[in-house]
Amino acid sequence: MTTAVVTGLGITAPNGLGTEDYWKATLAGESGLGPVTRFDASPYPSRVAGEVADYIAEDHIPSRLMPQTDHMTRLALTAADWALADGGIDTAELPQYGIGVVTAASGGAVEFGQRELQNLWSKGKEYVSAYQSFAWFYAVNTGQISIRHKLRGPSGVLLTEQAGGIDSLGHARRHIRKGFPAVISGGVDAAICPWGWVPQIASGLMSTVDDPARAYLPFSAEAAGYVPGEGGAILLVEEAESARARGAATVYGQIAGYAATLDPAPGSGRPPGLRKAAENALADAGVDAADIDVVFADAAGVPDLDRAEAQALTGLFGAHGVPVTAPKTMTGRLLAGGAALDVATALLALRDGVIPPTVNVGAAAADHRLDLVTEPREAALRTALVLARGHLGFNAALVVRRWAA
Amino acid sequence: MSTTTATVTLADLTRMLRESAGEEEGVDLDGDVIDTPFMDLGYDSLALLQVIGQIQREYGIEIPDDAVVDAETPGALLALINSGQAPAA
């Protein structure tokens, strides 16, 4: 059996641009949540977001790509550049059709799409960008990354809402197992514009609390919804032997187990699928619950969903049976980028032997019976479980393990 | 749309190319590009479609979609635009 390892990371997050800035801020508990500035959110019930500040697109994106991309795709291209550079991979040295691109998406480039639809309806079809033909599309990040780096291996896009970051990595591993040496994977999303905002409000899961430090409190007795953010992570996934042969400098860890489930239909009486996803991922990795050193939780921030996740965790690990953390309390939920960033964060935790904190929550509500990590905690970490749920029934779980070459 | 007799110059075209489609690294649009194929300047058919849209809006003229493939150079595109063979509908 081939082994999929992660050899490069590219992170664009509300609390840090670039892997080391993000990781430093995350360990320091620095939140990137604040009032929405990317559009006038004052007429909307939810007004807090995790925005990627200090990102100057022109510093990262070639002029030719500016008119055909929006904020989301620019962040994705930047993260992909960084992941490839971090991996030190010379794409020209690998087979022409050897490197694929598989990313996650939610609504596509909604900022681009909103602008062009506004042009269409307010000015007329002559005013719609020719680039609207593809720039809004769900697959745009995958396509632009592929074109920019001439990556012609198997490529695709997965849409499982907030679970997509994990599902993309699971799919990347499938390509590795088929014999492809490398896949660029993960997810970067950005939907902080009215068109991206309204459907999330309609879900009824968004926080309407205006204080950025109180708006997103997963597992707290005061949990009242989630805060959306933008950004995510792109990961360079390679076949372990191929990575060794080319002399990859860093192996962050192994994608040891992956599973996805769908929730049963409402009213079926059957339990939600998150626990099953976690169990299947553990089985896929060949590990027991006792082998898991830390869980990066989905952390919906919605009381019912928090309770369901806490029950899945206590069912698997016992009460207070495993350290649980949600560093996304510092970034908000990043849609298709969130689970990818959680995987990247888990790999950094394994690298440095420290669990990043869940901020603002203080402590989990007692009835959740979770060992919620609220301060950075040093620990001998070998194996981490990352969980994610997508709205309307997607569950995904990924097991990452330290790499001992 | 209204017709116009204004002539589109190479400087106008390069400005609109930059605005509509950006500028390829290593290409100097201010150089002698009048007979350089758009492909060599880093512009594909979508980029040309985009800039032709801008020309139509700014100058109130109609340019047939075939111009994207027929006009392979800035000079050829300018000739097509300025020939008066493309009146507004």
Describe the overall structure.
The complex is a heterodimer of chains A (405) and B (89). In chain A, helix 6 packs across helix 11. Chain A has 11 helices and 16 strands. By secondary structure, chain A is an alpha/beta fold. In chain A, the strands form 3 sheets. In chain A, strands 1, 2, 5, 6, 7, 8, 9, 10, 11, 13, 15 and 16 form a 12-stranded mixed β-sheet that branches. Chain A has a two-stranded antiparallel ribbon with strand order 3-4. Chain A has 2 domains: 243 residues, Thiolase/Chalcone synthase (Peroxisomal Thiolase, Chain A, domain 1), CATH 3.40.47.10; 145 residues, Peroxisomal Thiolase, Chain A, domain 1, CATH 3.40.47. The longest helix of chain A has 17 residues. By secondary structure, chain B is mainly α. Chain B has one domain: ACP-like (Non-ribosomal Peptide Synthetase Peptidyl Carrier Protein, Chain A). Chains A and B meet through loops of A and helix 1 and helix 2 of B.
> How would you classify the helix and strand content of chain B by structural class?
mainly alpha
What kind of sheet is the major sheet of chain A? 12 strands, mixed
Number of domains of chain A: 2
Please tell me the total number of domains of chain B. Answer: 1
Tell me what portion of residues of chain B adopts beta-strand conformation: under 5%
Question: Outline of chain A, from the CA principal axes?
Answer: globular
- The DSSP helix count of chain B reads 4
Low-confidence stretches of chain A: none
Beta-strand segment tally of chain A: 16
SS elements, strand count of chain B: 0
CATH architecture term of the largest domain in chain A: 3-Layer(aba) Sandwich
Q: Any idea of the CATH class of chain B?
A: Mainly Alpha
Secondary-structure element order of chain A, as H and E? EEHEEHEHHHEHEHEHEHEHEHEEEEE
> Based on the structure, what is the oligomeric state of the protein chains?
heterodimer
